[in-house]
């Protein structure tokens, strides 16, 4: 809950203020203020979705309901959030990559996109394992 509250505060106060300050300091890049604000707020929103879905999954573990079809919906929410963040990240990478003179920022964005892709693939594997365990538990309960 504390992390979620910090992210909401970060999303509503810090990010717009930070990009407004950057636009004042670098007027030649002021046109990027609102796109950068929108993209960063969207990424924080994706992290919030992952936090809420993880919290729901942990509650299901606590109540011994993790091996159910309902848990797959929360895993899907995590997957969609990661996929949406990755798509926007690749868009930013392409935009920056074609406009940048310095290879540092595009390389950093490329590494971040690889990291997010690996995280998404890991979640696909975890989802398959959860589906298989759910099927096995359902079959076992039918036998008992």
How would you describe this structure to a colleague?
This protein is mainly α and 144 residues long. Helix content is 87%, strand content 0%. Helix 1 (2-25) runs antiparallel to helix 2, helix 2 (33-62) runs antiparallel to helix 3 and helix 3 (69-99) runs antiparallel to helix 4. The longest helix has 40 residues, at 104-143. The model has no long low-confidence stretch (mean pLDDT 92).
Intertermini distance: 39 Å
Query: What is the number of helical segments per DSSP (H or I, 4+ residues)?
Result: 4
Helix content: over 70%
Instruction: Please count the beta strands (DSSP E, at least 2 residues each).
Output: 0
The description of the largest β-sheet is: none
* Alpha-beta classification: mainly alpha
Strand percentage lies at: under 5%
Q: Enumerate the spans where pLDDT stays under 50 for 5 or more consecutive residues.
A: none
Oligomer: single chain
Shape: elongated
Average per-residue pLDDT, rounded, comes to 92
């Amino acid at each position: 809950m504390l992390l979620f509250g910090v992210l909401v505060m970060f999303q509503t106060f810090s990010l717009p203020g930070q990009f407004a300050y950057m636009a004042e300091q670098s007027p030649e890049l002021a046109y990027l203020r609102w796109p950068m604000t929108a993209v960063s707020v969207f990424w924080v929103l994706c992290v919030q979705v992952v936090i809420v879905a993880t919290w729901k999954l942990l509650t299901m573990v606590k109540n011994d309901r993790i091996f159910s079809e309902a848990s797959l919906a929360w895993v899907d929410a995590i997957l969609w959030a990661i996929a949406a963040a990755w798509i926007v990240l690749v868009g930013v990478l392409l935009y920056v990559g074609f406009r940048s003179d310095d290879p540092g920022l595009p390389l950093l964005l490329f590494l971040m996109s690889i990291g997010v892709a690996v995280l998404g693939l890991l979640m696909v594997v975890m989802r398959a394992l959860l589906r298989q365990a759910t099927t096995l538990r359902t079959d076992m309960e039918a036998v008992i």
